[in-house]
Design a protein that fits this description.
The chain has 214 residues and is mainly α. 84% of the residues lie in helices and 0% in strands. Helix 3 runs antiparallel to helix 8, helix 4 crosses helix 8 and helix 4 packs across helix 9. It is globular, with a radius of gyration of 19 Å. The N and C termini lie far apart (42 Å).
C-alpha cells in the first residue's frame, strides 16, 4: 500500500497544504465550535468537532461518485444547496444573536451549570454545519478537479479524504480543548453573551452572503 501511495506524495502534500489554509480560515465551522465551547463546554464542542470532521466524508463521497461534477455543472443544484445552508446558518445565528446578559455572578454560574446539549445533537449540529457549507463544497470540487489527477485511483482519493476528515476533526477538537479550558472559558463566559451575539451576527452575514450569491 505504501509503495502504491508513494508516487502520489506530491499530490497529497499539495492537498494537505491547501487544506491547512482552508480549515484555519474563519467560517461557519469555527463559529459553531467557538459558540459551543463557550456555551456548553468541552464535551459538546468536541462532539461538534467530530461531526464536522465526519461531514468531510460526505464531500469526499459525492466527489468520488461524480455527483460533484453534477453540482459543478448544474447551477440550480448548487443554488439550492446554498439556500439550504443559508437558512440553516440563519436559524443558528438568530438564536445566538438573541443571547441575553446574565444579571449577576450567581446567574452566570447557574447558566454555566444548567446549559447543556446532548452528544447526539452536538454531533449533528457539527455534521450539518459542515455538510451544508458551500465553502466546503467548493473546496472539494476545486481540489478533486484541479489538484488531483484524473488518473489517480479512487482508493488513493479515498485515502486523501480520510486524511482530510481526520485532520479537520483533530483541528477542531484541539480548538475545542483550548477554548473550553477553565481559564479561557471563564474569561469568555463573563462576556459570553457578546461572543454569542458576535458569532450570531457573523453567521447571519454568512447566510446573507450565501443567499445573495447563490
Amino acid at each position: 500500500m505504501f509503495d502504491a501511495f508513494s508516487q502520489y506524495w506530491l499530490e497529497f502534500l499539495t492537498i494537505a497544504s491547501v487544506h491547512i489554509l482552508a480549515v484555519a480560515s474563519p467560517g461557519p465551522d469555527f463559529a459553531i465550535v467557538l459558540k459551543h465551547s463557550i456555551s456548553y463546554g468541552r464535551r459538546v464542542a468536541i462532539y461538534t468537532s467530530i461531526g464536522i470532521g465526519l461531514a468531510i466524508m460526505l464531500h469526499v463521497a459525492y466527489s468520488l461518485l461524480g455527483i460533484g461534477l453534477l453540482i459543478q455543472n448544474t447551477p440550480g443544484v448548487f443554488s439550492l444547496l446554498s439556500y439550504a445552508a443559508a437558512a440553516y446558518l440563519l436559524y443558528i445565528g438568530w438564536g445566538a444573536i438573541r443571547s441575553k446578559a446574565p444579571q449577576n455572578t450567581n446567574e452566570l454560574n447557574t447558566q454555566q451549570s444548567t446549559q447543556t446539549m446532548s452528544d447526539k445533537k452536538a454531533f449533528w449540529v457539527g455534521f450539518l454545519t459542515n455538510g451544508l457549507n458551500p465553502k466546503a463544497t467548493l473546496f472539494f470540487l476545486s481540489v478533486f478537479a484541479v489538484a488531483v489527477s484524473a488518473q489517480t485511483p479512487n482508493h488513493i482519493k479515498l485515502v486523501y479524504g480520510l486524511y482530510l476528515s481526520v485532520a479537520t476533526g483533530v483541528w477542531f477538537c484541539g480548538l475545542s480543548y483550548l477554548l473550553s479550558s477553565s481559564k479561557v472559558r471563564g474569561f469568555l463566559s463573563a462576556k459570553g453573551y457578546w461572543f454569542d451575539r458576535i458569532m450570531g451576527a457573523v453567521l447571519i452575514l454568512l447566510a446573507a452572503k450565501l443567499a445573495f450569491t447563490a
